[in-house]
Design goal:
- By secondary structure, the chain is mainly alpha-helical.
- It has a single domain, classed as Up-down Bundle (Growth Hormone, Chain: A).
- Helix 7 packs across helix 10, helix 13 runs parallel beside helix 16 and helix 15 packs antiparallel against helix 18.
- It is globular and about 60 Å long.
- It is a multi-pass membrane protein.
- It comes from Psilocybe cf. subviscida.
- GO terms for molecular function: transmembrane transporter activity.
- It holds the Pfam family MFS_1.
């Protein structure tokens, strides 16, 4: 099929209606109507998804404040790298269960997944509150909360994809601001509670906040399309589509490299010689700018196409990562933190919407988003450890800011390569034609 005809095929699939119940319809006869792209029910799905982003990716983005407390107070005998695996396993588990979770959403088990996710997350936080050993925190806050976050998050791209088409990027971008805001709010709440009520009750209060906000989600979230009961968890046909495969490659490399600056910017600031009070503000600055970056670029993406925004964003993020190596002043660090935070916002919020756009049928969105995240989970798991290993190697041969050269080069190279694969995705879909995609 000519790449330029693919969008016409997608549009023709989404302008029809269901004419048979799923039990009677074959895989090829299920017909889908076009999304409403607005209205109270549609925007309530954005509200519900915002609450989920707040308590999944937002909670994971906040792990730095937990790591600092565990390293200095609760688990002083455990190394920082060992403790970091608690946060690492959270992200890995959230992503790796994507294929089964995405397929279950397509099959209609939306609220079942939401309830399982709420239970696991809240239970994990409550168990973490009584944990005093590393293995206890690894199982409770790492495994339990990570799995719960996965069950909770995968309905988001599906429900937004079913209710929005023309404004899909904008809707998902608004929902994704929940994770940026949580990355600012949760650390502040935890730090203030620690000095007042101690660790145990701080974790319990966070768990209760999660329970309350996610309760709002349960009351309004819903699917618009008839469930697709038949079909595998893993869509082999999708892996025969060059554009989809190329984008999975781009997304995987993005997940490998994009978190390195977030993980090491504070440490780098200390090496450069920036005072500690300013260094601690660099990560909140990045998260705040990421919040803006998840709305503005997504709005433009609805006008010009998600891939047309995503491709230059990943390449620019790679260039900024390389520029970290040249930063030697407070002003340069702040400028790069602002720039990288803004660019990374669109990189994080656009992929689910782009995958939805590359999916010919709306009742396959959950499956294909889940597959992409499952594959990318392995890259996300090793990204920061590779950056850390390169940093350790740099410390053996260099001093000062030069110890970070290899780490920044790794992040930059991986991101630029991901951007080039994003361009390949675009080429496989529409060729070199200047058009919305």
């Amino acid at each position: 099929m000519n790449p330029s005809n693919n969008d016409e095929v997608l549009a023709s699939h989404e302008k029809t209606v269901f004419n048979k119940p799923d039990s009677e319809a074959s895989e090829s006869s299920v017909i889908i109507d076009s999304p409403p792209d607005g209205g109270l029910t549609a925007w309530l799905q954005v509200v519900a998804s915002w609450m989920i982003f707040f308590n999944t990716w937002g909670l994971l983005n906040s792990f730095g404040v937990f790591q600092n407390y565990y390293t200095t107070t609760l688990l002083p005998t455990s190394s920082p790298s060992t403790i970091s695996w608690i946060g690492g396993i959270q992200t890995f588990l959230l992503m790796i269960i994507g294929a089964p979770c995405g397929r279950l959403v397509d099959a209609g088990y939306l609220h079942t997944q939401i309830f399982i996710g709420i239970f696991l997350e809240v239970f994990g936080m409550m168990m973490a509150s009584i944990s005093t050993k590393y293995w206890q925190l690894f199982l409770s806050q790492g495994v339990c909360v990570g799995l719960g976050a996965g069950f909770l998050w995968y309905p988001c791209p599906t429900v937004i994809g079913q209710f929005f088409q023309k404004r899909r990027m904008t809707a998902l971008g608004i929902a994704a601001t929940g994770s940026s805001l949580a990355g600012i709010i949760y650390p502040i709440i935890f730090s203030n509670l620690l000095s007042r009520v101690g660790f145990a009750w701080s974790m319990r209060i966070l768990g209760l906040i999660m329970l309350g906000t996610l309760g709002v989600c349960v009351s309004v979230i819903r699917l618009r399309l008839q469930p697709r009961r038949q079909g595998p968890f893993w869509d082999q046909g999708a892996l025969r589509e060059p554009a989809y495969v190329a984008f999975i490659g781009a997304f995987s490399l993005m997940m490998m490299g994009s978190w390195v600056p977030y993980n090491y910017v504070e440490t780098f600031a200390g090496v450069v010689g920036v005072n500690e009070s300013l260094a601690k503000w660099l990560l909140p600055i990045m998260n705040a700018c990421s919040l803006i970056g998840r709305t503005g670029p997504n709005y433009v993406a609805d006008k010009v196409g998600g891939l047309n925004i995503m491709t230059p964003s990943i390449i620019l993020a790679g260039v900024v990562s390389l520029l970290w190596a040249l930063a030697k002043t407070s002003g340069a660090l702040i400028a790069l933190a602002i720039l990288y935070g803004f660019i990374s916002g669109s990189m994080i919020s656009l992929p689910p919407a782009i995958i939805a756009h590359l999916t010919p049928r709306a009742d396959h969105i959950g499956t294909r988003v889940g597959m992409a995240y499952t594959i990318a989970s392995f890259f996300a798991l090793v990204g920061n450890p590779i950056g850390g290993a390169i940093l350790s190697l740099g410390k053996r041969h260099h001093t000062g800011e030069k110890v970070f050269f290899g780490t920044w080069f790794f992040a930059g190279l991986v991101l630029v390569t991901g951007g080039l694969l994003c361009f390949v995705t675009r080429y496989k879909r529409v060729g070199l034609k200047l058009t919305k995609i």
